[in-house]
Amino acid sequence: MLRRWSAPAALLAAGVAVSLVPLAPASGASSAAGAEQARTPSVVHVVALGDSYMAGIGAGDYWERDGCRRSTNSYAALWTGQFGGDLTDLSCPGAQVADVAKRLPLVPADADVLLVQVGGNDVGFGSIAGACVIGGTSSCVAAADRARAQARSLPARLTPLLRAAQAEAPGARTLALGYPTLVGAPPACAASTVGAVVSPESVDALRRLQRSLDSAIRLAASAAGVGYLDWPVVVNRHSLCSDDPWYVVPGTGRLDDLLHPTVDATEAMAAHLRARGSR
Questions:
Q1: Cα–Cα 20 to 30 A to 250, which of 28, 227, 229, 241?
Q2: What is the pLDDT, as a whole number, of residue 91?
Q3: Largest alpha-carbon pair distance within the chain?
Q4: Where along the chain do its domains lie?
Q5: Residue 132 phi/psi, 5° resolution?
Q6: What DSSP element (H or E) covers 142?
């Protein structure tokens, strides 16, 4: 029998019971059994799947297992900790859709919430951002345009992944996550440190790529019948072009943390997840 969503008090406090629509009881399930389950508090089990953004790279306080570095300050960890839930973190820096698919057998069948953030590495977003700083405008725009073409094919791979993830934990609510805005609008960037090394045309190309990536993830989520959530506006306001970027920049962290959200950003994302249920 499929596990019914019980909306435990802890998850109500976490703010997702309203925003993640409950499934109907499985066929044959009695209303009495459902009522009893709803009255029984339980620990909410959250599963995190995805790449370095899901793993919290950039947010510090790292731990490592199975060759994957993760942060106790990831937004999944911070959000789960707000309501005393259990987190199974299957994220891994550098992961692409195919890598996440290989980890699906590790998803507990009784999970309550699945958080999935992946796709950026499939289009090479991180390497393109670096190339735009080093390679100049023409190479940056060309690379970003090629990646946008790759993003258009992303839903064909991501949609089956989201469906397969849901099948591993039929009673869970699955939420696909987009990516935070790395660079602000060209006028703002022109007056920033970023503007000294990245042209307005390159900034615009990066922004177009990011919109294409998030649109592809949103489309895949819709096709798979799962939820979608972008990062909060407050994080986007602290892009690399701001006076106070919430990203690891040269001289502020490890080399492999560069261009990843700091703990300020992951805390804001955790609060964003919690606030969804109040709408």
A1: 229
A2: 98
A3: 66
A4: 97-278
A5: -70, -25
A6: helix 137-152
Residue 123, amino acid: V
Question: What Cα–Cα distance (Å) separates residue 151 from each residue in 3, 93, 253?
Answer: 34, 19, 29
Q: What is the mean pLDDT of each run of 10 residues along the chain (279 residues)?
A: 32 39 32 34 86 97 95 97 94 98 97 97 84 84 93 97 97 96 87 86 93 97 97 94 91 85 97 73
Q: Check residue 211 and give left, alpha or beta (phi > 0: left; psi -120 to 50: alpha).
A: alpha
pLDDT of residue 194: 84
Q: How far apart are CA 143 and CA 235, in angstroms?
A: 25
CATH number of 97-278: 3.40.50.1110
**The pLDDT of residue 237:** 94
CB 113 within 8 A of CB 46: yes
- Please give the pLDDT value at position 27: 34
DSSP H or E stretch at residue 128: helix 125-134
Q: For the chain, where are the E strands, in sequence order?
A: 45-50, 62-65, 68-71, 86-89, 113-117, 173-177, 227-229
Long-range contact pairs involving 134-141 (C-beta distance under 8 Å, separation at least 24) = 136/199, 137/199, 137/201, 137/202, 140/198, 140/199, 140/201, 140/202, 140/205, 140/206, 141/201, 141/202, 141/205
